[in-house]
Fold this sequence. Notes:
A: alpha/beta, six-stranded mixed sheet, four-stranded antiparallel sheet, 11 helices, 39% helix, globular, B: alpha/beta, Rossmann fold, 3 domains, 10 strands
Amino acid sequence: MSVAIETQNLTFHYLKGTRLQKTAVNNVSVKFNKYEIIAIIGHTGSGKSSFIQHLNGLLKPSSGKVFVNGEDIWKNRTNVRNVRFKVGVVFQQPEYQLFEDTIYKDIAFGPSNMGISDEEVKNRVEEAVKFVGLNRKILNESPFDVSGGEKRKAVIAGVVAMDPDVLILDELTAGLDPFSRDDIFSRVINYHKIRKNTVIFTSHNMDEVASFAEKVLVLNKGEVAMFDKTSEVFSRAEELKSMSLSVPEVTVIFSRLKKMGHKNLPDCVLDIEGAVKTLCSR
Amino acid sequence: MTENFIEMKNVSFKYNINEDHCAIKNVNIEIKKGEFVAIVGHNGSGKSTIAKHLNAMILPTRGRVFVGGMDTHDEDKTYKIRCTVGVVLQNPDNQIVSIIVEDDVAFGPENLGIKPEEIRKRVDFALKSVGMYEMRKEFVSRLSGGQKQRVAIAGILAMNPDCIIFDESTSMLDPKGKNEVLKALLDLNKNQGMTVVLITHFMEEAVLADKIFIMKNGEIAANGNKRDIFSEFSLLESCNLSLPQPAKLISSLRKEGMDIPQNPLNKDECVDILDKFLSSKLRANEL
């Protein structure tokens, strides 16, 4: 399997060289394969967002290296700009990153800076709008006049319109109601299936991590605590708890049932679907 | 019957008076002193609009709101109402004013004219209850989103209000942070008699409350105690909400034709139900 992003001994200090120096990312070496869906979890302040900002060159490592498609992104300074088109990031609370006077212009901003034709920009915006499920009627409205959910979709469309190989979503669903959360996530997954891109997302919602991620990277105090298949990670409930994290409630329910003597139950049940299948098959 | 501490009577509100759209319509809510009430609803259902009415941040377009017997329309009472009801907002960045953690928490009580020694006590107590005491000398700008939110909550606690409204205040926290805040909130309610209004998207959090109001498109779609509300699976789905996993699991099993009549409120109850279910199935298979 080929590698989309790799970090080698990535370390980052905020306010380096001052009395307030703080290490946000400490010696992180991981490989994210192409076409994978990876979740990054960790307590608040564990370094998730700082780590993510290294993956498209928004932060420069204090030491260590970042490779995108096998290339050291800081080898040539002018190259970093191109990395930002290959690795697209939707930030936390992206509603605040809208700035144009219409939704259309905001979505078109990214691709129009890529040196492609106006026609191509238009096509890309259309595609992106379809993918996120935005109502076309609102494209000419001001981003400040639409609802929070629509704003968030507009930002995602703006990143998708750049057609990045790697899509990074930082706390994509924080603050959304359960329906909008499932809606946005299933659109990202659909897009992933069609585009065959790599998706990396951070979340505090263990249910969505368990349902959607193939692999999970656990960060604790800026260091890698675990990096493994989702079912492996969530079968280590006690360790996760000690790192301010948790496992989905259905996972807890099944591990307790198993302890109570109901053998033949699987070691790790991740979501409702899996739970229903398990119980219906006996 | 104790008297109502907070009352909303037929309240409707329009953000733009020239438009037909009402953010909330004919809302009636009664909250008694010491109660723990949850208001649950989808994005844009009017939850936050209700919160803003409860401490006179906005005034009803139609209807009346009373807090501790004071009408929020009465401008002379506005200050008193805001000392009575504190609000913790969704985004802590909108609520934090100082550079240093403990200064920020002291900001509220300082403005109430409280003595320095008392302020010190309140600030320490408030920071300890949200688990931020160790970081009291930190720069706010160096905290993560979740840590900032806990500072914002401490800032309200330090003002010693009778009622605190949590307006989706846990939406940015990690699981532990969320639990700590919910625990602090329950502790305030059960042990200090604080009236708590929790505004949330999540039934997992609403289940902690004594009384639940479900909002849909600006109106109250249902209200009642948690067990009644939890049995209304289809109603919740029509309101863009979803049941917590234990209840959802049992409901999904029922859809598959399994005979499980109970609705679990939490995972303990769910484990009990499934334990009995699996054991009886095992016995049936042996026969």
